[in-house]
Write a structure and sequence with these properties.
The structure is a homotetramer of 383-residue chains.
Chain A: E1 4-10, H1 14-29, E2 35-42, H2 46-56, E3 60-62, H3 65-70, E4 76-79, H4 86-95, E5 99-103, H5 110-123, E6 127-130, H6 137-147, E7 154-162, H7 179-182, H8 186-201, E8 205-213, E9 218-220, E10 235-237, E11 243-250, E12 255-261, E13 270-277, E14 280-285, E15 291-296, E16 306-310, H9 333-350, H10 358-377, E17 381-382
Parallel strand pairs in A: 1-2, 1-4, 2-3, 4-5, 5-6, 7-12
Antiparallel strand pairs in A: 7-13, 8-11, 8-17, 9-10, 11-12, 13-14, 14-15, 15-16
Chain lengths: 383, 383, 383, 383
């Protein structure tokens, strides 16, 4: 009979909702090798976490993450808290022998990330960083095709992650705009994703030249209405980057061009990736996430063109999606977390590593750090 | 304290999975006015329904739908069985005072549909036909915009529902290809959806001229491999239409052009709808279901063009989607059922009608019948 | 040494400009088997035709088309005058032994068209109707692919020609809106084009059921400003259809669905064609005229999808376009006329038929007539 | 009565054909303030230039460009020769008082470019560098909209010019791959175009960090077939860059990201430009050159989205295009040259500067040089 994993999830807001849904749905659509129990949801605000517990379907609520990581009832610790808490929680969880799924970026800096990896390795627990976009069916298909040589030798990795939620200068400060809690801005939050996809699909970065920029240096402390005449409005300083750009070279000779910004009006979650190889190319845009565009240089000359692959075919043809609905029936954002959790659970049962591990998290963090260093020094930085 | 509805679902295959998921997810993402309990899942095959019960998260399994509709424990009967069972189940459920959600097409013919409506009205239960596509955020937005007059007077309703799962002549016979169980082919299965969207977004049909056609008249009885030489292959007769086309006039003067086919290679679930009005147009394609294209004739002349609206903004701006994820984070096929169930539950609490009712189902069935009559007589048919 | 054809062109407005350009440009980009001379431009308005002659580069101007067709100096008569003049001019030109290129629709009715064909055949002149869209490179490529069997057996021809220039009820009456000069409205003007493309790419129509509709029955006589209060505005009656729809069956078993309208807000010259066959599909939109979308059912299952073929490769790969610019460098509307003229000139030299001939024009006219008859009788009409 | 300009064009291959066409067509579609005469076509190969003269419609042919620039019969010198000849020809033409239209990049280096500008200024002739893409109607519309403030303050300029004609390592060496004749590779040939569009639409570059890379270092000397076993194949060294990337900051605070490559399989002439401002964004792709995508942050919240503007409306609404065909009828690559020539001719008549002048050429050349210097030094370079 299958064993059961009891899960403790730290964080109940955006990522908390997405991860809760993943734990709930994964067993319904994937034949997991273990049962999962949504055991404890943890957050600092008592009322908030209690309401979330009921809404999201957890058995228990807690306000101190130490209780969760130390509880003998818990098998898996899932970290969806702000970035500054990742390292401390993860290291404690590892010491307590819990398997760990941690949101990205892995940590505030390389040192923290390395400590997390060391702790997890020492404890021999399964560790995974939640770069959920790897398990978009279209991305997983691209990985498979590239692995099979469909693109030949890779020459270009061109990626842009563009959002627009900060274009409005009235948008208030939050923890993602504070260096202490977030580590960085667009760099760690969204550049990290396209760095990860580059590492996954193309290979390791060798050297980079980066640029970080803050367009709006000061923002309201809350979204309270503009105060009356005579009073003073409370403003806070934005201490992270609004946009992160880099050009670089990868170990395998490919050129890299990455841009991450929260200031591209009209782009909501536009992860636009193009990979060009000596035999073909692929293009992907998250705002059209069920599709992969593929140019095959081996097609007959008169009928070459980017194929618009709707990645919704049954199991055995397209990755992950066959567990859902018939061809042509789309899936969405949340499914990427469900796929991640499904693979993580099976890895925990088998005690095997599951990509992307904390090692991937460390390598990602090094690229983020190199971008910052390059910006600081005004020159290229080797990895 | 909120009351609880116990649900009995008849059918556990494609629609059974979609509806189960909807019942499970609706309370997690919408503030329903009642609790729901996934009480009984019903299907004819004992082993099949038991396995499905466990996988899909129902408390009980049953093999006789009469038990479900007669059980005093059940409040809501959800009908996802083949079309030939809809009428009998729904009428029995109504007589037992159950609220009813029924898959489309409502029935095998107009007479059955009318009897279902009469039974539901007599029993004063809430009745809804599951035209889930009405609750795609993009479609709901189109409805709102049209209602506000953004398109002016409607002139054209052009719709195509194209799939390709029958292009392969080796695809075996199933209940959807048998008149006895299905009533019709592309007409009732998919033309019904674009008829419903036309009725929802534009208005009632006034007269139609239709064409039904079967491209492949005979198919293997199962997907077993082609038999050895010397033996005879078992073939079955396809007794429904493979494609249904119609041109027509609507009550409000708009012209209609609908085409439903399962023989359009490369089109997986291509519900392509264009509505042109005196002031603007909208275009929608289900294979890109998070978007609505909108042409506004009132935009300045030099910057008119179809807007590509990513219908993922927060509550208060875009319908339904705000209960899910931040802007730019897509949803998929299954969400349309969750939205349907959420509205249905709230209507059951309030004892109010919820569109589309069985009356909509009857009207839809009349259009389906008019298409068939028109094909038979070779001339226009008034509704 | 190559011979020289002297051309006389009747008509100097929209079609006059397009044809003049074609005669001027064809020898510069195609190796014609004869020289061409832009000899005489003819139009009824003396000042107008003189100004046009200078602007468009013709040697002489004339105001009486009879002079042109009877002139011993003229070898080719190109007819770009309103539809009611086609028959008379063409028949006279044939009798005078001129090769004839005539704008579409060939005539006001089938009888006229048949007389034109008979006259041209009797005179053994080369005759061509200017369905210029056949020579869009993407369409010519589709023709080639279909001929090679890339789509298998054709099942569906779905076409829509949508414009929006009449949505504004203030748009004044012109000759295209008068039955006497135009013969019909959307039917002959634009439905004729998609009928032609259907005949070219798929095959002959067998039976149709059609619908003709006029949305705006009365329009201002000119685009003069709305008159002062007290005075009466001069209005004219629209005597042709604003929209023409048809469903039909083709000789080879394919189903047809055509819609032509001038009332689709936002659609400027949207000729959207989809052809589905047993092995694949093609899709084309004139507003993106340098591309052909092609779905190949023989592609590996995991990488099927509509290919976005940019039809701009060099000669030997893609039709016509190689005479222009390097790959990726687009051509436009006017080029379709240049390709038509180039093929016409070579056919004149060789004395061979060149598609589409007046016979194609006659067959097209029969479909147009069948649509009108079907509308009149409210039933299907066989061809 | 209008005066007449006699044109001498140096170069008869790709640019020679495009410029010849422009000179021939401009007077037919634009009301030029002068007549133009295609007087002399000049090229080094006698047979080649004679054949081209006849094909392209020039009165005379010459093999020595000095004859052309010194001829008292010539008013305008149009330079379409390889890059290494631009400076010498242009300076001589200026000294002879000719107005000068010169292909891009203006020169091999900044010094040459500055000398050309000085010579033209001294001679008080009209001078223009042929950045034809400025006069794509969609780009001219973007310029107008940005000038009117439709995007607010510009934050991002993201541009990619991707081609694929060098992906095949068998593609032979030509003058564009030799530093002596071309100056640089992708940098001067195509990066120059997106630098120009950035300068035109956004503003001056302030500092850049660039990367130049050559993927294929050696190529066949000709496209002769691979030689027999035993013989040695003649190979040549590629001495220019295959790809040029840069990140940068612009004077007005916008961030820049440019990538130019000839190694992007499937991209034929993909000039993809996105400009994000505080109020909106525009997107353009040359492979879809008749369209401009525009996101207007001032649209109502529920119906925001990139508008797909088909830039084909009549004069007074959209730039340039109104001189061609009715709305929805596309134009192509060659038209950008015709628009350029039309504006150039009118500027010559008026004796006024016409953008982009040689001064623009000089500034462009400085950015190209900064990219090369940055690559050499491995750090940022200020302009």
């Amino acid at each position: 009979m299958a064993r059961t994993f009891r899960v403790g999830l730290i964080g109940y807001r955006f990522m908390g909702r997405a991860h809760s849904n993943a734990w709930r749905q994964a067993p319904r659509f994937f034949n997991l090798k273990a049962n999962v129990e949504l055991h404890t949801l943890c957050g600092r605000n008592t009322a908030g976490v209690q309401a979330a517990r009921a809404q999201l379907g957890w058995q228990h609520a807690a306000t101190d993450w130490r209780e969760v990581v130390e509880s003998p009832l818990i098998d898996i610790v899932d970290i969806g808290a702000p970035n500054d808490l990742h390292a401390e929680i993860a290291i404690a969880a590892a010491r307590n022998g819990k398997h760990i799924l941690c949101e990205k970026p892995l940590a505030l800096n390389v040192k923290q990330a390395e400590a997390m990896l060391a702790a997890a390795q020492k404890a021999r627990v399964v560790h995974m960083v939640c770069h959920n976009y790897r398990r978009i069916p279209a991305i997983a298909l691209a990985k498979k095709m590239i692995g099979e040589g469909a693109l030949g030798k890779i020459l270009h990795y061109h990626a842009r992650y563009a959002q627009d939620w900060l274009v409005d200068p009235e948008f208030p400060i939050n923890w993602r705009l504070q260096k202490e809690t977030s580590g960085s801005g667009a760099n760690g939050d969204i550049n990290a994703h396209i760095i990860d996809l580059g590492r996954y699909l193309v290979g390791e970065f060798k050297e980079v030249c980066g640029l970080l920029h803050t367009f709006v240096a000061e923002r309201p402390l809350s979204d309270a209405p503009v105060p009356q005449r005579g009073s003073t409005r409370k403003m806070g300083k934005v201490t992270v980057d609004d946009a992160a750009l880099l050009i670089g070279r990868m170990e395998n000779g490919a050129l890299a061009n990455l841009e991450a910004t929260r200031f591209a009006a009209g782009r909501k979650n536009h992860i636009a990736i193009e990979i060009n190889g000596s035999k073909g190319s692929v293009y992907f845009d998250f705002e059209d996430m069920n599709r992969l565009k593929f140019f095959n240089g081996d097609d007959p000359k008169d009928r070459q063109g980017f194929r618009d692959i709707l990645v919704t075919e049954r199991s055995g043809i397209h990755p992950f999606i066959g567990n859902w609905w018939p061809p042509g029936h789309l899936i969405g954002y949340e499914h990427t977390f469900i796929h991640t959790v499904a693979d993580f659970v099976n890895a925990c049962v088998e005690g095997k590593p599951v990509q992307p591990t904390f090692e991937d998290g460390v390598k990602n963090q090094r690229v983020l750090a190199a971008v910052a260093e390059s910006q600081h020094k005004g020159r290229w930085v080797k990895l």
